[in-house]
Amino acid sequence: MKPDEKLLQVYNLSVGVQQGDRYFPAVDDIEFSMREGEILGLVGESGCGKSMTALAIAGLLSDNLRVDSGSIVFEQQDILHITEKEKVRLRGKDISMVFQEPMSSLNPLMKIGKQVAEVLLLHNKRTAKEAATDVRNVLIKVGLPDPDKVMRSYPHQLSGGMQQRVMIAMAIIARPKLLIADEPTTALDVTMQAQILDLLTSINREYKIAILFISHDLGVVSRFCHRMAVMYAGKIVEEGTVYNIFNNPVHEYTKGLIGSIPTASSRGKPLVSIKGHVPSVFEEHLPCPFAPRCLSAESRCFTEVPRRIHLNENHAINCVLAEKVSEVEYEI
Amino acid sequence: MRNKLNAEFKIGAVFTGIILALMLISLIYTPYDPYEMSMNIADKLNKPSAAHWLGTDNFGRDILSRLMAGIKHTMLVAVSTVSISLTTGVLLGLIAGYFGKALDEVIMRVMDAVSSFPGILLALVMVTVMHQGRYTIIIPLSILFIPSFTRIARGGLLQYKSADFVNNAKVFGASRLRIIFVHILPNVYPSLLSSLVLGLSNAIMAESGMSYLGLGLQPPIPSWGRILSEAQAQLFIAPWYAVVSGLFIIFTVVGLNFLGEGIRKLLP
Questions:
Q1: Beta bridge partners of A308
Q2: Cβ of B164 under 8 Å from any chain A Cβ?
Q3: I need a surface site. Which of A263, A301, A302, A312 has the fewest CB within 10 A?
Q4: A332 band by pLDDT with thresholds 50, 70 and 90
Q5: Do B169 and A96 touch (CB under 8 A)?
Q6: Torsion of CA A266, A269, A274, A277, to 10 degrees
Q7: Could you report the per-residue pLDDT of B101-148, keeping only the tens digit for each?
């Protein structure tokens, strides 16, 4: 692969809920890409389609969900249109995933050692003994001090943080190129969150594993990600480097999100919040779903479909009003 | 196991243990030959005594020996019935749950049809139609018991089909068969185990019932149900005969029921 080529490209992806004859879009025509070794944060409120995007990429959509249109290209291969066999080969080896709830993501009846080794045995032709050595090494790598004891344990014998470390160990043991982390720190307490993020950072640096990091926590994203995409009601409303977006948020939604992070300077003042709520998947969406909550909405916001506008190479926005703000001055 | 053993489990285990112990003893030793009849009228329908603890029947055979010898036949029928229906039922349930849609509908509606028949009636018809062998009874009973296992396996599969750890296994590239048999099935074992034990007790009841009607195990096998029906004829002359053989059945069934219930409570 040439250095500049993209690892993952998502084009016009629409995913929705199929209920009988009716189809409700939950992810609506989104587009983004990831380079090798990059950490992309996907942020937004609950129910705006972040997890569904992740599941679509991992090929884990349940029966009532379906990809309506678009393509997901992973290393020049459209992974939406490959056979189940090819998908099985891809999963775990090239794409892996860490879920939100470590407790329920591990098989309660299988010892950790066996469970982690399974990933290797499914993909690489290795003997159980070689796999055990690898498992031991990767458990040390993810910061579990007594790997032999952990390997002999069942999931319920470990703490939440240890379980999440095991999950990460499973996700990286086959050295995938892309790791999807769906809110990996949400179920953990704050100190554990920081440790897990440090671990993910070091994995990203050391093994050059690209991470698609899904979170509703902008603070975490700002520290951890290289680039970010802000989702709202199934659409990506703003995308760019973390630096650009935090310094020059353009979309009103992004501004609202960033404004609602408590900072030292906002001490004593009431916290800003965005009025209203995310429209449900089953409601009819406006051309710009954010228009009813937008502080600078004009009448055309309710009729015109926003296009994607590139403010510069590393900053794009989906807003009808963006022409006005296209001359953003970046502090460099 | 971290959970404390509950009273049901203990009672059930003791009852079942006693019956199994009696069965094992009967394999090598019974107080008298359970098949040997006596022409001597003095030996007929004796009351319980030191020589014959539970008395003798109308052919002068020792009742305790016959009841003990009957355990292994009853158990043979119960165990083979449950193993056949368990295997078939679980496979059907997994197929139904996994493939879903039309196949699921077909399998589950057939199961509904089977279980909507009054059990004893279906078994009666099948035994009558089929060639009468000593153990013919096993086939209709197995068919009768399939639906309960199918439902449990299907329910378990559906419960875990979209569990996080199943998705996780999928993400790491486990094939469908591997997911079903390595990741899902072991999680369904607990509920299968308790219904397996209850299934045994139901099979014993059904077998006794059929044998009582003369359609189960064929003579000279000393089946409990048959002993009971023979005892019925002597009810006024030798009431203990019917009482002890009935008690044997009750004891076993109650024991297995307690055991099944205990296991259900013991497992999460």
A1: A318
A2: yes
A3: A263
A4: very low
A5: no
A6: 120
A7: 888 999 999 999 888 888 778 888 887 887 777 778 888 889 989 999
The answer to whether B171 faces chain A, any CB pair under 8 Å, is: yes
Length of chain A: 332
Interchain proximity A92–B172, CB inside 8 Å? yes
Percent of chain B with pLDDT over 90: 16
CA distance B197 to B204: 11
Q: Nearest chain A Cα to B178, which residue?
A: A122
CA–CA separation, B26 and B30 (whole Å): 5
H or E segment and range at residue A131 = helix A128-141
For A280, phi and psi rounded to 5 degrees?
A: -70, 160
Domain B76-236 sits in CATH at 1.10.3720.10
Contact between B211 and B120 (Cβ < 8 Å):
no
Residue B126, Cβ density class (10 Å: 0-12 exposed, 13-18 middle, ≥19 buried)? middle
Rounded Cα gap, residues B15 and B258, in angstroms: 9
The CB-side HSE value for A248 (13 A sphere, CA atoms) comes to: 19
C-beta separation of A59 from A79 below 8 A: yes
Q: Which residue has the tokens 């939440």?
A: A160
Distance from CA of A85 to the nearest CA of B (A): 8
Touching A: B residues 226-265, CB under 8 Å: none
Q: So what's the ipTM on this one?
A: 0.74
Give yes or no for residue B70 having a pLDDT over 80. yes
CB A9 within 8 A of CB A33: yes
Q: What is the pLDDT of residue A180?
A: 92
Pinpoint the alpha helices (H) of A179-290: 190-207, 218-224, 242-247, 252-259
Q: Is B174 in Cβ contact with A96 (below 8 Å)?
A: no
For residue B57, pLDDT over 80 is answered with no
Domain boundary assignment for chain B: 76-236
In 3D space, the residue among A121, A196, A176, A116 whose CA is nearest the CA of residue A148 turns out to be A116
Note the pLDDT tens digit of each residue in A262-318: 877 777 888 778 888 888 878 777 888 888 888 888 888 888 888 888 888 888 888
Average pLDDT value for residue range A21-49: 88
pLDDT of residue A324: 61
| Encoded tokens for A61 | 């959509």
